[in-house]
Amino acid sequence: MSDNDNNVDMSRYFSDPEYRKQISAQRKKKKGTDIKKRVLLYSAAAFTLIIITITFYVIYLFQGLPSIQELENPRTAIASEVRSRDGVVLDRYFIENRTYVSIDDISPNAINALIATEDHRFFNHWGVDSQSLMRLPFYWATQRMHGGSTISQQLARNLYRNIGFDVSVTRKLREMITAVQIEINYTKQEIIEMYLNTVQFSNSAFGIESASRTHYGKSASDLTVIEAATLIGQLRAVYAYNPRLYPERANTRKNVVLQQLYNRGFISEELYSTLHEEDIVLNYHPPSRAGRESRYFGEYIRQQVFDWVIDNGYDLYADGLVIYTTIDSRLQRHAERALSEKLAEFQPIFQREWTSPGGSYMNRLWEEYPQFLRDYIRESDRYKNAFSKYDTNQESVVFEILMNDEAYLDSLKRARTKLQSSFTAIDPNNGHILVWVGGSDYGTQQFDHVHQSRRQAGSTFKPFVYAVAIDNGYMPYHRFSKFPVSFIEPSGRMWNPKDPSVPSGPEMVPLRQGLARSLNNVTVRLLPEIAGAPGTNRAADLQPAANMIRNMAANLGIDMSRSPAFPSIALGTAEVTLLELVSAYTTFVNQGVHIEPIAITRIEDKEGNVLVEYFPEYSQEAISPETAYIMIDMMRGVVRGGDGYHGTGVRLRNVYNVQQDVAGKTGTTQNSADNWFVAMMPHIVMGSWVGGEDRRIRFPTNSPNSIGQGARTALPIVGEFIQNASSDPDVNWSYEAFAPPPGFVMPEDPAILNNDRDSRRGRIGW
Hints:
Structural class: alpha+beta
CATH class of the domain at 98-289: Mainly Alpha
CATH topology of the domain at 98-289: Penicillin binding protein transpeptidase fold
CATH superfamily of the domain at 98-289: Biosynthetic peptidoglycan transglycosylase-like
Radius of gyration: 40 Å
Strand content: 5-15%
Shape: elongated
Number of strands: 20
């Protein structure tokens, strides 16, 4: 017996059966009591454990829910937009290709399709559909954790990524709790608006607006029933129902949505029957180009606002900023078209000019410049990888292999001999940049030839020389010899700048004609006079003139820090950007006052609040209004010509029929690598550059009919632009003429007025 049995009479226990039964009953009762105590103890422990587990689970569950602040201010990555002054989206910066729009700007067709397909009891539940809730056990048993999700629940997943998308009960519970919280904080209309702006569609489009523009090239407010059904149908599986990749599958899904619209009373049976038979018709705009007109300009704007965005704590790719610019989308469209069409026309001509009859692709170029091809080969990836590929350190071996690969050489030659072009236009009255075309295709060449490319200006630099002369008392009628002149450099070498040929006619040529015909000999003969050393033959004596010309260009807005003041600067050896050049010419139109070009007018947040505004920066008077107008009048002759001569820009009138008041200047560099043309009107100054994508590529110089002149390549782009823009009724094109300064009278040649032989020779006559 155990110690607990100490009170038992052992002799009686063994001799008395009744006593033994009594003791046994007591023992059983005591044992039952102990078991009950243990059960109660274990039950209490288990219950406590369950409570603790549930408590921790609830804590864990709610830790994954969005905070009150997040619920009240949901954050969605919204693309920032670059817009033209007339409201067209030019470019977008985004992590997710999304543009947020109000529910008022979403077609009712899209809203109806969403309600009918995704949650037809949306307006009758509190975030969780009770009828769908009853089916959850079945969904969970079949591992379909997404079953029964309302629009509010789907929005919870889209807005708050910490809820997750994994298949689990926890995720579903978090989703349901958040959906209820959303319903408490927002109206039904706000929930629909947020949902359609956050959900992902096919082809990397986020939100209904981006999806509409990507698939149909239109705003979400203009979606038809069939278009809305196609887009909403994608939400079940954006890849599987992509109408671009799987049109048949998408069409089937579209019909399912139409059926739901009919079932829920949103469309009539007749309309359903009609649309059911219609195929999906897309107007597809790739996501990287949806709503884009000028990627070069977009990159320029990104660079301009980058510091401001960082300093003010914004995210350019997620905060939905709206950057309003000075660009006119209609002018932009005409400029891009003109540049694209003309380059397509010039490229084959350029190739033919360098290809001998019966010769290979541009064989004359490779014969005239044999080092070009070897340089291009050295710069190619094929060359750089060849040493390891062919296990050699001998360049001669690599060249022998590559030079015998005709397919590689042909591909390399064609890639490196592409012509490139740029175009820009500025309003001279306020410095607003109206047009920006940095190249022919940003996708293949990201280098911007409007503001990144610095090329020799050629004869487009000459107006700055003549402006210095006019500022120093010379008049358009003053005459200079048309024959060349030489100067001795300090090294003893001769500097012999000259025209390719001396034009016929009188020896003495007025400055007006010298500029209109772009005569180097006349321009060079100005230098000693400007320098105050008439008659000198020493190049060193021309230095004061070079300094004055350099300063003039700088005052007109050209960065001359990279261009030394050599006398040759008068013939355009200075390197400029197209933006600088066109901006400098606006000074002539703006009565001598230079305005720095401006591209941005204001930045707004996604709610339309103005964050910052930008205004033109007016510089001090660079030249007098009188000098500015005289220069305009002289450059009219470039286009109009004059008595007995044609200006270099006469094609603008004769070929492109530009009859309004216009002034301009052509330019071609000495090696024919760069062609320029700038045209001025009172309301717009336009400029174009054409040259090789690689600056070593140049036009032939020994062909009299070569297109390697500013008048034959850059001018046609400007001419085509003017022709198209001025005939567009949507463009506010002005035909206003240049007006002289108040009280100004254009100086006339006294030789003509007085028939005076002595004055006929002008101010000088050497």
